[in-house]
């Protein structure tokens, strides 16, 4: 039993100090105890940080992070498309809500695709790899056919479907490469062939080069950059050695340099990196206006719908540079929120890829996450003036159905993979059992007993 002095929180005069705190005042012992106690207050059991860490470790956390972050990105994107596209639509003689209605239609179709992808068995997703790849190659070839392919902003990479509807096959090439590459690498891993460099590169790299050639034939350098990042991501996940990355990366850098050096407008975009004032010759207009838009928003923005740049100064305000309009209307708080949502989506995708034992899920989840994160960084980096303008949309945020549909299908795949983990399956089964029991009015004890009985049967 503690003495009276200890209960009162004091020590008898001259009494010895015991335990880890023993030692001279201000010595190493006192310092270590202070650090230990401060850490305990910050991260000990019951603290907010501890509860946050425990929440991240739950089996269903990646599923809800993917679902929640992607849904919020879509909703916020719809709001910003409506705000950023009104003046553009009016200048074209169209109704104010023209682009918003088209984007809402694409989101509705994409939601169906995402739900289907989330509910499909993994084996059926894997079975889509070769048909999708062959279909995408056929569409990319059709783009070059006169009368079928359509040029937009100087790039011959669209197919008109009649009226105002058109698709961009290069966007679906990313999804095809993810599924086909994941299936290929998973098969080779099961046969223990990935320890040989030739099986790592062939036929993955030649197929990637074929897709790049078909995409670059239409002039779409931005999509080609994302396909390159996706290809490197698959090689990284497969465990390719660094010397192989150096060799492949050197070849890719050399080809990219040639493609930029011999095309004047690409070289001009490269020279606009970091420019914050408009040159006297009027070059770098889009890059500078994007920086002006972000700067004009300050901390909390001008207000939703109050952007100045979208009134003609900023080209492509609802597509490639929608992040600049977001920064102007919602401020730093709004742009950081968007970045936080993409960071949550990326973390969840990496966790799904890192914790699964299925090689196909690991490669597909890693490839899809690399695709979405690389495209986000390229778009946002261009708006911030840190990267050249590549003409790629912000995933699930910018206007454009061709880019939105394959991306939402990829998010649906991530949801499917997150649900397929054994711990996530058990948690979902227990939750569904509890929900059904509550609907039937069963007592809590009976629900728990039924759940334990089901777990014993599954074991």
UniProtKB/TrEMBL annotation:
The chain crosses the membrane at residues 63-84, 96-116, 128-147, 197-215, 221-237, 244-263, 330-350, 371-390, 396-418. It is found in: Cell membrane. Pathway: Cell wall biogenesis; peptidoglycan biosynthesis. It is a multi-pass membrane protein. Residues 1-29 are annotated as: Disordered. Its main location: membrane. Its EC number is 2.4.99.28. Keywords: Cell cycle, Cell division, Cell membrane, Cell shape, Cell wall biogenesis/degradation, Glycosyltransferase, Membrane, Peptidoglycan synthesis, Transferase, Transmembrane, Transmembrane helix. It catalyses: [GlcNAc-(1->4)-Mur2Ac(oyl-L-Ala-gamma-D-Glu-L-Lys-D-Ala-D-Ala)](n)-di-trans,octa-cis-undecaprenyl diphosphate + beta-D-GlcNAc-(1->4)-Mur2Ac(oyl-L-Ala-gamma-D-Glu-L-Lys-D-Ala-D-Ala)-di-trans,octa-cis-undecaprenyl diphosphate = [GlcNAc-(1->4)-Mur2Ac(oyl-L-Ala-gamma-D-Glu-L-Lys-D-Ala-D-Ala)](n+1)-di-trans,octa-cis-undecaprenyl diphosphate + di-trans,octa-cis-undecaprenyl diphosphate + H(+). Residues 1-11 have a biased composition (Low complexity). Pfam families: FTSW_RODA_SPOVE. Peptidoglycan polymerase that is essential for cell division. Belongs to the SEDS family. FtsW subfamily. This is Probable peptidoglycan glycosyltransferase FtsW. It comes from Streptacidiphilus alkalitolerans. The gene is ftsW.
């Amino acid at each position: 039993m503690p003495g009276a002095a200890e209960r009162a929180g004091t020590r008898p005069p001259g009494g010895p100090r015991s335990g880890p705190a023993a030692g001279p005042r201000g010595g190493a012992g006192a310092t270590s105890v202070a650090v230990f106690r401060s850490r305990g207050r910050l991260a000990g059991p019951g603290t907010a940080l501890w509860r946050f860490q425990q929440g991240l470790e739950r089996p269903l956390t990646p599923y809800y992070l993917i679902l929640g972050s992607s849904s919020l990105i879509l909703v916020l994107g719809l709001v910003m498309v409506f705000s950023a596209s009104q003046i553009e639509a009016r200048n074209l003689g169209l109704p104010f809500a023209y682009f918003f209605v088209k984007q809402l239609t694409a989101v509705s179709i994409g939601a169906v695709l995402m739900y289907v992808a989330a509910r499909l068995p993994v084996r059926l997703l894997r079975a889509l790899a070769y048909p999708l790849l062959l279909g995408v190659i056929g569409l990319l070839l059709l783009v070059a056919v006169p009368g079928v392919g359509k040029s937009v902003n100087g790039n011959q990479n669209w197919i008109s479907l009649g009226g105002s509807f058109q698709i961009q096959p290069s966007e679906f090439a990313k999804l095809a490469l993810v599924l086909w590459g994941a299936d290929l690498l998973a098969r080779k891993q099961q046969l223990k062939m990935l320890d040989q460099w030739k099986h790592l590169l062939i036929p993955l790299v030649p197929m990637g080069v074929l897709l790049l050639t078909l995409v670059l034939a239409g002039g779409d350098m931005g999509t080609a950059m994302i396909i390159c990042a996706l290809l490197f991501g698959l090689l990284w996940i497969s465990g390719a050695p660094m010397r192989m990355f150096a060799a492949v990366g050197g070849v890719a850098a050399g080809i990219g340099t040639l493609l930029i050096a011999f095309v004047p407008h690409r070289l001009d975009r490269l020279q606009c990196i970091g420019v914050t004032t408009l040159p006297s010759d009027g070059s770098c207009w889009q890059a500078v206006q994007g920086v002006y838009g972000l700067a004009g928003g300050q901390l909390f923005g001008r207000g939703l719908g109050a952007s100045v740049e979208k009134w003609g100064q900023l080209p492509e305000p609802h597509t490639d540079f929608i992040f600049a309009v977001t920064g102007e209307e919602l401020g730093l708080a709004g742009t950081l929120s968007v970045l936080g949502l993409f960071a949550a989506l990326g973390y969840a995708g990496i966790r799904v890829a890192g914790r699964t034992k299925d090689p196909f899920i690991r490669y597909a989840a890693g490839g899809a996450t690399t695709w979405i994160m690389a495209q986000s960084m390229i778009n946002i980096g261009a708006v911030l003036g840190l990267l050249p303008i590549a003409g790629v949309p912000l995933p699930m945020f910018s206007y454009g159905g061709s880019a939105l549909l394959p991306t939402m299908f990829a998010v649906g795949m991530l949801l499917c993979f997150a649900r397929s983990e054994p711990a996530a399956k058990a948690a979902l089964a227990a939750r569904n059992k509890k929900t059904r029991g509550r609907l039937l009015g069963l007592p809590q004890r009976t629900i728990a007993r039924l759940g334990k009985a089901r777990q014993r049967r599954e074991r």
